[in-house]
Specification:
25% helix, six-stranded parallel β-sheet, binds nicotinamide-adenine-dinucleotide, binds zinc ion, oxidoreductase, single chain, 13 helices, 2 domains
Length: 382
């Protein structure tokens, strides 16, 4: 089969690799019809993780079931399914509590928790930017889709990661009807957080970024765009909230946060959130931070640390939630919102391309080139 193979920093190639297959009785084999490039792939693509060369990416996957192991009860050949990016067993201590983001079985390292397809430090699982995908614990991990699966693939594929992840940010931030909320980052995840805040009834959603195309998308769903290359985003939020600060906020950027000129400042978004959110407000951080970042420019960041404004955070009595999103906690309900026509996460999609076009797509998406807001790959044909 063909797959988008990682060759080293900023280099991927579409190559022949061994076919994915059913290896255990509980596996499901999926012919991948739709798979996205994610901002999380870019940390790996840029060589800022220890992702191994020769492996392939792809954790936002959807497709058609073409084979099931003997131990699979529910999922059937022919089903259209979307897979949470978290690989999870369903029966460990964490999965039982709904914390499939920290599965203890799918992660082979006993000192770690959580697994994902085609991801650094998240277990051995192959990615889905390929023609075929092996889905372990298939009954637990497959979310089945209805007859509109193909027609609305660009919506449903967002259930693999970014729609539930954006929703999780708003859940950790406690966004409730009437709230005024601020989101740092208008990448795909930030835009999904903005959509989720709207679904949850926020009265005002403010989105901070500096890319006009991404900010326009935020405005297209009724959010207020704040361009931090033009204004101080903290002051802009205070102005929008009678000087009190937002009720809650979401971090959707991660450790490669930078100033508008491109200089990395891994503490920028967290500290601006502390300043932008009111006393006692909540912050949900889904942007990725890592325990080691050897490629960082300063000593703190190399050790996974940031100069966090703990004093102001404590003084304001704020709360903070963080980590990988437990996709399975939300994907079914969000699927039903899509099916009912009440959510259309595909508004962020700028490109639907073949697998062969992936190397070029990686370059453009990585450069955050104007108009490259979300890339959907179609291994079975566009
Ligand atoms: N927790 C999870 O489960 C989960 C899931 C998916 C993605 N992620 C992470 O979420 C983050 C965002 O993902 P994405 O796909 O949207 O990525 P992206 O890189 O496309 O978007 C990030 C956006 O943040 C903006 N930005 C950078 N510095 C900023 C700053 N100081 N202030 C405001 N905006 C700033 C960039 O201009 C960009 O538009 C990444 O770290 C990704 O790894 C986490
Ligand atoms: Zn992703
Ligand atoms: Zn588990």
């Amino acid at each position: 089969m063909k797959a988008v193979v990682y060759k080293g920093p900023r280099e991927v190639g579409v190559e022949d690799v061994p076919d994915a297959r059913v290896e255990r009785s509980t596996d499901v084999l999926v012919r991948v019809t739709t798979t996205n490039i994610c901002g999380s792939d870019l940390h790996m693509y840029e060589g800022r993780t220890d992702f191994e060369t020769g492996r392939w990416f792809g954790h936002e996957n959807m497709g058609e079931v073409i084979e099931v192991g003997d131990g699979v009860d529910k999922v059937q050949v022919g089903d259209r399914v979307v897979l949470p990016f978290n690989v999870a067993c369903g029966h460990c201590k964490n999965c039982e509590r709904g914390l499939t983001n920290y599965c203890l079985t799918a992660q082979p390292d006993p000192h770690m928790a959580g697994a994902a397809y085609g991801f650094a430090d998240m277990g051995p699982w192959a990615g889905g930017q390929a023609e075929l995908l092996r889905v372990p614990w298939g009954d637990f991990n497959c979310l089945r889709l209805g007859e509109d699966a193909d027609e609305r693939a660009a919506d449903y594929v967002m259930l693999a990661d970014i729609f539930p992840t954006g929703y999780h940010a708003t859940e950790m931030a406690g966004v409730s009807p009437g709230d005024q909320t601020v989101i740092y980052g208008a990448g795909p995840v930030g835009l999904m957080a903005a959509l989720s805040a709207t679904i949850r009834g926020a009265s005002k959603v403010m989105v901070v970024d500096r890319h006009p195309d991404r900010l326009r998308l935020a405005e297209s769903i009724g959010a207020i765009a704040i361009d931090d290359s033009q204004v101080d985003p903290v002051e802009a939020v205070l102005e929008q909230t009678l000087g009190l600060g937002a009720d809650n906020g979401c971090e959707c950027v991660g450790y490669q946060a930078h100033d508008p000129s491109g200089d990395e400042q891994p503490n920028a978004t967290m500290n601006k959130l502390v300043q932008s959110v009111r006393f006692t407000g909540r912050i949900g951080c889904v942007g990725v931070f890592v325990p080691q970042d050897p490629g960082a420019s300063d000593e703190l960041a190399r050790n996974g640390q940031i100069a966090f404004d703990q004093g102001l955070f404590w003084f304001k009595g704020q709360h903070l939630g963080s980590g990988q999103a437990p996709v399975k906690k939300y994907n079914r309900q969000l699927r039903d919102l899509i099916a009912a026509g009440k959510a259309e996460p595909s508004f962020i999609v700028s490109h639907q391309l073949s697998l062969d076009e992936a190397p070029e797509a990686y370059q453009h998406f990585d450069a955050r080139d104007e108009g490259w807001t979300k890339v959907v790959l179609k291994p079975a044909g566009v």
